[in-house]
MAGUK p55 scaffold protein 4a
Amino acid sequence: MFWKVTDIEIKSPLNSPTVFVSTCFLAFSGVTDILSGVVDDVGQAVGRNIDGAQLLYELLSAPWLRSLLKVPIQQSCTHVDSLCSCQALLSTHDSVAQSDYEPVLPPLPDDLPDDEEAMRIVCLVKNNQPLGATIRRNEETGEIYIARVIHGGLADRSGLLHSGDLLVEVNGNPVGGLEPEEVIQILTNSHGTILFKVIPNPGQASSNQNPVYMKAMVDYCPLQDASIPCPDAGMAFSRGDLLEVVDQSDAHWWQARKLPCAASCAGLIPSASMLKSKQKEQWWRQPLQRFAHDLINSISWFLSAGFRRSFRLWRRTSYRKRRQSCTTCSPNSNALNTPYEEVALYQRPPQENHRLIILVGAPGVGVNELRKRLIKLNPSTFQSPVPHTTRPIRPGEQSGTEYHFVTKELFEYMVCNHRFVEYGESKGQLYGTSTDAIDEVLRRGRMCIIDIEPHGIQFLRTKKLKPFVIFVKAPSPERLRQTRRDARIITNFTINRAFTDDFVELEEASQLMEAKYRQFFDSVLVNDDLQDACIQLCSIIQQAQNEPQWIPVSWGRTE
Ligand SMILES: Nc1ncnc2c1ncn2[C@@H]1O[C@H](COP(=O)(O)OP(=O)(O)OP(=O)(O)O)[C@@H](O)[C@H]1O
């Protein structure tokens, strides 16, 4: 159990400087010791040569003690673990003062000056938590300052140390002129109660900023970043992580927590501009490019092995061509420009169109199977957009049912006007999914389910569609072997061949896809047992449509 004694303002008889003895988080058993320490400290401030009883009398009649009673107790205690502990400690102090020493204190003066240069003595009890503050040295003056106070850390919760405070002494050791490492060494060697003497920063910024929520679009590891001021205070994150940014006051280093939040203490992360400048240095870009390269190799392997099949085959044939010609719509380029994406919770109002549901997954993982089963389960709720094709209509087919049958000229006109989410060629005929077809499903009040290549997600990330992206992930090769005994794959070369030893490659491709695109995924579904996966898919979709979800703030703004 810890106690907090609120700020005690001690005004020395010699006018200045004003001394704040601010003790906080005192161990319960050590209250008496600490209070005696405070009195000792004050004794030093007014001179040791005064008779003890006289000194006490003077202390108890002094303005600084009166101002102690002026402290807003409730407010000061809001940071501490126990409110009653704070009041109890003060009343103990009061009863000592009132009962043992006369006279009764006169009423508080209302005109205590508050613009004097002040020194604050902050007493923290060291436990196994870090202090939660970093220091910096002014190279010209050699002065040591509190550089930042980590949100939710011990120093922050004390409410007594702030960024910009000048650190004068640590446990009686003057720190001016020391290197920051030497100060840290003093702190490391100190045990129990640590006494800081600081001159508060008069213009300290309020640390009570409203949190901002960001989705990380890049990976970050503080241990690999030579520029971070304090690697131990850094927080690693991965693409797709949701971050609660609690402090953006520093242009270079923000403070954030990862959600769902386990840690009360924030960590340092580079600001968006800092990450962008790192991008320019190509500091973090290289591993990403390696990833992209690996993925292309992996997908190419599937292509050359003819692993892909069926309806989605036309996408594969165009995939490499599009990658070469259209790099601007690649999610990478966007992620490089926007290391963080600001997000907000959104709940779809019942009168609005349903959110577009996008399924993505490695070839053969079962995206198509899940989509078909979902629609079969409830065709009046779920529907896929009707694709366009240039192939001739067959007997029994109806335009607008299986496909929209269009001429090659019309198809190419639609391509030029960016009307296709994706399109490709198979056996000399063009196939594509248009945005109009998606709109049509949504307009009819249905939930539109599409499965696309992950690099097509970016094109659909619009305020109008507010897509919810579900990544269909491969289970382990062992589970694939067990669950896919009867599964068939259709390739360019072999119709309906059985899965053989493709499972390791399938899992690898799935992992690579997740690593590269996970910043765009709202949910991950492991397609292990088919029936279980279907049930989970239904429940994920219901939540996406009916419960609050994080979306980019730009999708929620009204123009
Ligand atoms: N969970 C599962 N358990 C057993 N078999 C499955 C499961 N999921 C999918 N399958 C089967 O695996 C085969 C491939 O599935 P599907 O065609 O849906 O893959 P896909 O990811 O859509 O790949 P493609 O894009 O190449 O069509 C199909 O025979 C399908 O029935």
